[in-house]
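User: I'm writing a short report section on ligand binding and want a predicted complex to refer to. Could you take this sequence and pyridoxal-5'-phosphate and write out the structure as tokens? A short remark afterwards would be nice.
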Amino acid sequence: MIPYGRQSIDDSDIQAVVDTLRSDWLTQGPKVQQFEEALAAYCGVKYAVALSNGTAALHAAYFAAGLKTGDEFITTPLTFAATATAGLWQGATPVFADIDPATGNLDPRAAEAKITSKTRALVPVDFAGRPADLDAFRKTAQDHGLLLIEDACHSLGADDHGRRIGSIADMTAFSFHPVKPITTGEGGAVLTNDAALRDKMIEFRMHGIRRGEDWMYSVESQGQNYRLTDLQCALGLSQLKRLDAFIAKRRDVARRYNAAFKTWGELEPQPGRIEDSAWHLYVIRLRGKLATKRQEVFQALRKNGIGVQVHYIPVYWHPLYEKLGYRHGLCPKAEAFYESAISLPIFPDLTPAQQDEVIQTLRRVLDESCAAIPAEG
Ligand SMILES: *Cc1c(COP(=O)(O)O)cnc(C)c1O
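Assistant: Sure. The structure tokens for the complex follow:
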């Protein structure tokens, strides 16, 4: 099975981890700060805080933002559930606004319409690696005195009008899970230019501890153990050197898919210019009646060795959110997007032969599914 995403690990990555295994520090050592400094430099930001995964990164950002019971934050339903659930940990209420179907990203006007006196933060997600409309969100955040927290788990290495992702929002959260732009196994980080926010996240990452003289330390807040190890940071440092090459390869895959699908009427390719996205995902949407065959198409692709996925089940459809009172129909555009979407394999080491296999298998499966749709009249 060709997976929809996977890591690329080479000898330089392996050597970096082995060297760290032989060093004095497996965790809380020098690699953590080196990785943070390299990330911050890459993104053109003052500070990076490494955390144990992308969910912990979002949680730390929400903590630093001061989200608490009674507060609301506005986000998209077309994301991994952690974007919203990490806010529940702070007692805050996620408010879902609808997407722009052209991109899959949170629609700034739909988000603005959901602002109330309880809103504290806007949390757009860079769906599939394409930056959300950050200028619009920034302006709305400024107009209403809100924090802009960007879930950039898909978009490390992407640019937005010449600015690196990570340098635009008040806080930007990244994930280093193996399917993401770079990996540390599990891992994450938050980038910010604000020293006070950075300090809060560092405290939160280590049990809410502030250090004093000699053996003294004090637990100041209800922190977590969300540290990233030196082994992981060594891998991250090595992967970061390869990031631009990873993105170039992902863009090659996207170009090849776009060229193949240009004349296929049954599906809408992932929209957007190649250089506008980090291409974490390549999501096709089935058009017209074929959308009713999404499950069949999905199953046939899987049966034929193409490890497709679906991104995403609208977050508020999950039982946890149903129990909290969210209902189907809340964001109709996100629901329609979900219902016709299939994510094709895209990752740096996907070979041209594998790309051809994806294209040819999809062509065959679509022909069979279209033949099964009764003609009109
Ligand atoms: C992967 C992901 C997360 C969570 O990251 P983990 O490292 O798996 O905890 C959050 N939001 C989005 C959009 C993601 O893709």
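A remark for your report: Residues 130 and 277 are 4 Å apart (CA to CA). The mean pLDDT is 97.
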